[in-house]
Amino acid sequence: MQVAIALFPRNTALDAVGPYEVLQRIPSIDVVWVGHQRGEVRSDNGMLGLICDATFEEITEPDVLVFPGGIGTRTLIHDDEVLDWVRRVHRQTRFTTSVCTGSLVLAAAGLLDGLTAATHWRATELLESLGAIYTPQRVVEHLPQRLITAAGVSSGIDMALRLVELLVDREAAQAAQLMIEYDPQPPFDSGAPAKASEVVRSRADEYYRQRS
User: Fold this and answer.
1) Which of 29, 59, 100, 127 is labelled catalytic?
2) Which of 6, 69, 104, 203 sees the fewest Cβ atoms within 10 Å?
3) What's the domain range around 145?
4) Where is the DJ-1/PfpI domain (predicted)?
């Protein structure tokens, strides 16, 4: 079973690596990193490089597509090559999925028209301008349409565990969860806008502005 994870300049690394760490634990799943060209692409802050193993032209029939997010998606929503590829592979995927602002690309490709979808909380207006309906759920499923979207960054792990359940079975997903020892017990409870104080939200916005 082939899972294609898209890579592009200025991706958010955990959006891609989180699902990878879950999916690659399953022996029947082969993960391939796909992008415009083979070779290294740098993350959104430029500090981390990930390697594309194949080009979009080379990967034509993946069983699953995972499209991560990052500030680079703001360019991809206008990239006809990427959007055409997403539409083409979606015709035969078992599931087409996104993490964080990867849902912007799915929406720009027309896959989320009129559907609820998740994305990073700072991209809600842009997502809705592309035809989707934002919802603050961590993972949003439209199984008849074979679409799953996840909210910001770390939620890709949750999405990937659910994906393993759908592709294999519940015990396989639980085994993957155990293998990565995913047992979240964060020291703070400010991981969603509704939970964070105004001071914390302001600090987050300040950090985003400094990095953009």
Assistant:
1) 100
2) 203
3) 2-184
4) 2-165
